[in-house]
Amino acid sequence: MRRLGLLAAAGTVALILGATMPARALIVFDPNNYVQNVLTAARELQQINNQITSLQNEAQILINQAKNLTNLPYSSLQQLQSSIQRTQQLLAQAQRIAYDVQQIDHAFSTSYAPATSSQSDQLLIANAQSRWQNSYAATQDALRVQVGIVSNLDTNRVQTSALVSSSQGAIGALQATQAGNQILALNAQQLADLTSVVTAQGRAQSLEAAQRVAAQDQGREQLRRFLTPGQGYQSSNVQMFH
After folding, report:
1. Rounded to the nearest 10 degrees, what angle do helices 121-168 and 77-92 cross at?
2. pLDDT in tens, 149-176
């Protein structure tokens, strides 16, 4: 009986305490709600990570675009223009029969024209001297152009080395393209130099060949005059330029 009394008393105390404790002090744990809250927080965290990754990718794209739009700090344009101008100046200094169609046509209608009986001995000699002087000047011009081309070789070597280094160290597409374009320009300048020296040599060779042909023709005319009776040709004036 005593035990039953104690249990009843304990139950009464518990009821009294429960009735006197505030409702906010009661903690109720809901597992399902907890799991949902954790999943929601995880999804929000993943979204934030995705946004951070996206921003990082966009920033890298902008950095790459900036690199691709960066100009090449090295330029060989001035040196190339100087080399081309030197070669052009040498070609422009061509003596006597220069690179001019009207001058060529005039020369081949006068001093290089076939010798005729109507031409005086003095004119034949003057034409022969003019042809020789033309060949001499053309040979000198060709040698001067060759010297100019050789002087450009060292400049071209330095520019080629610098451009190759710039191309290899390019940080973006624009720099690589600009370096490649400058290398192509350098190749074009070297080709122009080669064309110039071939042209100068061809001019000298052509004038030399024309001189030989005209000299042979003039020699035949002088010989005809010498052998023609009554021509009144003075042997001391016979001059053949071969």
Report:
1. 170
2. 999 999 899 998 988 888 888 888 888 8
| Residue in the block written with tokens 């973006």 | 172
> Cα torsion for 226, 230, 232, 235, to the nearest 10°?
30
Per-residue pLDDT tens for 13-29? 444 545 555 555 556 77
CB 194 within 8 A of CB 83: no
178 Cβ neighbours under 8 A, 6+ residues apart: 71, 72
129-138 CB burial, b ≥16 within 10 A, e <16: ebbbebbbbb
Tokens of 30: 């809901």
**Inter-residue contact 232 to 191 (CB < 8 Å):** no
What the block records as the tokens of 228 is 């023609």
